[in-house]
Design a protein that fits this description.
single chain; 499 residues; mainly beta; Immunoglobulin-like; 5 domains; five-stranded mixed sheet; four-stranded antiparallel sheet; 3 helices; 5% helix; 46% strand; elongated; disordered N terminus
Length: 499
């Protein structure tokens, strides 16, 4: 027995010694490269370098130096090169006397093994002192109010300048501090540098303080929005067989638009969009022209024969439901063959009437309970002005009774003079209404769930939220987001006060 136990213990020891393990190379390097030597030390004064050479503690990678290495103020052109652990930046130009400069490496330098990087700033002055001016900024999305990282803030000598005298980048919290700035008055702008040219361009999302001001202790806010475009049609798309959709600025004169040389047949789905229908069913070319734009589309034989496809179903409630097709509707046919049934038990639901307008179909029906319903659309039930029809189609949608929906009661405080209340569900707008001080609004028939409200300060009373207007030097209209709305439940009324 003793001998057997000895053998078992010996085998166990051998097995323990023979276990396979993984060799470890030590802890992962999570630190960014560190400068260990420089020909111009950081925070140097009384220097006028023609180049700056930085040696790091490890091998590094220099990434996109033409975009990520900048001298602020930009009085010289920088050209950066890499050799092993050393980055050299040549300054081509004449540095101004008694000026503090910051050399920025914005994600340009990464270590070779782990890819760690950081924002490096190397500061020096051509005078005896470093400029001590500083300003804090906070960057937010103008409509949603979310903090925005990667947004540049620039200080400009003139309002019309595109290239800033000083430049900085917001962090993950949407905050930024510009420091080592010379005393004086500046125009201040924040912008998303879409084309990465280091300057603010008219098409880029931005905000600005349109009067010259001095640096101060208070944090300044910027609300970023894409500039208001009053003249261009955008994102125009041809949808066969004969429809175009795109963005059209609010207030755009429709008489300025022609389709194939004629006045357009159109409607506005929203205040800043357009849907245009082709009048000639045989046209092989689609050309839309305005005073400043021309859009051309080839319309193939296949496009001309494209079937009408029902889509874009909306929530069924109050015994009404709608969908749209991809052409202007000329007629509805074979209405008795249209059929709505319950998905659960396949029982038929009576259709009272079918109507249409533009490219939308409206169904009115009788249902007594909330459930998922299915519409069967027979072949050739809808004819478009291009002469094509729909194939046999089936659409499902959810119908809800009043007892399964809730109401949102919104009370407007006396301090709010005029605005627009927007109701959002799952991040999407589902309803809106103008409001004035002391008014009570009711949004009826809402699905149970969590909602958000936005209050737009409609300063120009056009019924829209307006982004930044560069022509008028007007920032985006203020928007306040109300996120802590009590959860809406079925057959409940939830009351909210907006202040």
């Amino acid at each position: 027995m003793v001998r057997a136990l000895y053998v078992i213990l010996s085998l166990f020891a051998l097995m323990s010694c023979a276990q396979i393990g993984t060799l470890s190379g030590g802890s992962k390097d999570v630190d960014a490269p560190v400068v260990v030597n420089a020909n111009v030390p950081n925070f140097s004064t009384n220097v006028t370098p023609t180049y700056i050479q930085l040696r790091f503690n490890e091998f590094v990678e220099l990434k996109n130096p033409t975009e990520t290495v900048r001298l602020i103020p930009n009085d010289a052109v920088v050209k950066a090169t890499l050799k092993k652990k050393t980055v050299q930046v040549v300054l081509e130009g004449t540095l101004k006397p008694n000026t503090t400069y910051s050399l920025f490496f914005d994600g340009a330098i990464k270590d070779v093994t782990e890819g760690n990087d950081s924002l490096y700033r190397w500061v020096f002055s051509t005078g005896k002192d470093l400029d001590s001016g500083a300003q804090d900024f906070r960057i937010r999305d103008a409509y949603k109010g979310n903090a925005m990282s990667g947004v540049y803030v620039g200080l400009f000598d003139e309002l019309t300048d595109q290239k800033p005298r000083y430049l900085g980048l917001s962090d993950s919290k949407g905050t930024l501090r510009l420091s080592y700035v010379a005393p004086g008055n500046y125009y201040m702008k924040a912008f998303v540098d879409v084309n990465k040219n280091g300057q603010v361009d008219a098409f880029e999302p931005q905000d600005g303080h349109f009067t010259s001001q001095t640096l101060g202790k208070d944090t300044l806010d910027f609300r970023i929005s894409k500039p208001l475009d009053k003249v261009h049609v955008k994102h125009l798309k041809f949808i066969p067989p004969g429809m175009l959709r795109g963005h059209l600025p609010y207030g755009f004169d429709l008489n300025q638009i022609q389709l194939n040389g004629e006045k357009i047949d159109s409607y506005r789905p929203t205040a800043d969009s357009i849907c245009i229908f082709l009048k000639d069913p045989l046209a092989t070319e689609v050309v839309l022209t305005t005073k400043v734009d021309t859009f051309s589309f080839n319309r193939t034989a296949k496009d001309q024969k494209a079937a009408l496809i029902p889509k874009g179903t909306s929530l069924g409630k109050n015994n009404q439901w709608q969908f749209e097709v991809n052409d202007k509707i000329s007629s509805i046919q074979n209405e008795t063959a249209w059929e709505i049934r319950s998905v659960q038990d396949s029982l038929p639901i009576q259709i009272d009437s079918i109507r249409y307008n533009q490219n939308h179909v409206f169904l009115f029906f009788k249902a007594v309970k909330g459930e998922k319903l299915k519409l069967t659309l027979p072949n050739n039930a809808i004819q478009g002005t291009s002469g094509t029809y729909n194939p046999l189609s089936q659409l499902e949608f959810v119908y809800a009774t009043e007892k399964e929906l809730g109401n949102l009661l919104v009370k407007i405080d006396q301090s709010i003079k005029a605005g627009i209340v927007v109701v959002e569900f799952n991040g999407k707008e589902i309803d809106r209404s103008p409001c004035t001080e002391g008014q009570n609004l009711v949004f009826k028939g809402l699905l149970p769930g969590e909602y958000q409200l936005l209050l737009i300060n409609d300063e120009n009373n056009n019924g829209l939220w307006d982004p930044i207007d560069l022509e008028g030097n007007i920032s985006a209209e203020p928007v306040k987001m109300y996120r802590k709305i009590p959860k809406l439940r079925a057959n409940w009324d939830v009351q909210v006060s907006l202040e």
